Amino acid sequence: MILVTGASGQLARRIITHLHAAGADVTEGSRSPASGGRTLDFDSPAALDLTGVETLVLVSAGYAEDDVVLARHSAVLEAARRDGVGHVLYTSLVGAGDHLGFALAHRATERALRRSGLDWTIMRNGLYAELVGALLLWDEGGLQSPFGDGHVAAPTRDDLALAAARVAAAPGRHAGSVYELTGPPFTVGDIARELDAPVQDLPLGEYRRRLLASPALLPFEPPMLASIATSVRHGFLADHGSDLTGLLGRDPHPGVEAAAAAAWLQSPQPA
Ligand SMILES: NC(=O)c1ccc[n+]([C@@H]2O[C@H](COP(=O)([O-])OP(=O)(O)OC[C@H]3O[C@@H](n4cnc5c(N)ncnc54)[C@H](OP(=O)(O)O)[C@@H]3O)[C@@H](O)[C@H]2O)c1
Questions:
Q1: In terms of Cα–Cα distance, which of 20, 7, 11 is closest to 128?
Q2: What is the best residue among 59, 109, 157 to mutate for testing ligand 1's pocket, by most ligand atoms within 8 Å of CB?
């Protein structure tokens, strides 16, 4: 049986859908599981039950400080070892993302997985195209962007999910592999053309000031978001390799369309 964690999340949902479509024996794990699913809250280590799981798809657990995320992932790996899980697929972060504020938790989890004695596959996901679009700001004049002219090789969530499902369905072939999962690079200028909207550059200092002034953000979020902006702006997430094409058996979908759709959802709608 394949168990996918974080089943209520956007990535995990799509992985589960693809596994069902492939006829796999899949169970959902979540803090709030659907009927037939397993309750899995990584913040409650004593209650983690992974008995009967052959392949665990460990979707990285949410947005939080590094110590919180690492405690969650360590607890799951400990339970996987104890309960005899055969293979762990971990959804990590693309290698080029080492300058991002949330990279450390991913790299530390990869290290723990390599040392765990479990069989593993590491899926290093590029920045979601949908996230790139959602991070753009709007004012009356159109889009505002901290990303400059930087290219970003951001794949769609759905292509990443399909790749994860392919690996989870036949994990033996992928044991010990680290996949760098990127899509065709695009710029915010390309998103703006899709939307036929003007775009104004937001220097990093002004972007950070706005983040720090936002009451909606948790303390760890402004530096994390600013790290995404500077990495994209300066071309650190631009490189596109072939691992995703290899797993999908076709070219990844262009992320620019998904990014534009996500940006459009944030646009001010007429009352
Ligand atoms: N590559 C990227 O661009 C990128 C961007 C943002 C985030 N991420 C990472 O990728 C993951 C999946 O992305 P997404 O878009 O699907 O995020 P999402 O829709 O916001 O879902 C958040 C996920 O975190 C899980 N989670 C939170 N706290 C948990 C806990 N205590 N125990 C177990 N699971 C917990 C949720 O599981 P349940 O609610 O079902 O328990 C859910 O799967 C995120 O959690 C994050 O680590 C990647």
A1: 11
A2: 59
Q: Which atom of ligand 1 is nearest to the CA of 126?
A: 1
CA of 5 to the centre of ligand 1 (A): 9
Per-domain residue ranges of the chain = 2-266
Closest CA to 233 of 206, 212, 261, 253: 206
Give per-residue pLDDT as tens, 220-239.
999 999 999 999 999 999 99
Give the SS3 label for residue 93: strand
Specify the pTM. 0.97
Residue 15: how many other CB atoms lie within 10 Å: 30
CB 4 within 8 A of CB 19: yes
Per-residue pLDDT tens over the stretch 159-202: 999 999 999 999 999 999 999 999 999 999 999 999 999 999 99
CA distances from 12 to 38, 78, 107, 142, 159 (A): 14, 21, 20, 33, 12
> 60, 98, 100, 225: which to mutate for ligand 1, most atoms within 8 A of CB?
60
140 CA distance to ligand 1 middle (Å): 32
Reply yes or no on domain 2-266 having CATH 3.40.50.720: yes
- CA 51 to chain centroid, in Å, comes to 26
- Residue at token pair 């990014």: 259
* Pocket of ligand 1, beta carbon within 6 A: 5-12, 30-31, 40-43, 59-62, 72, 125, 127-128, 131
HSE-up (13 A, CA, CB side) for residue 35: 0
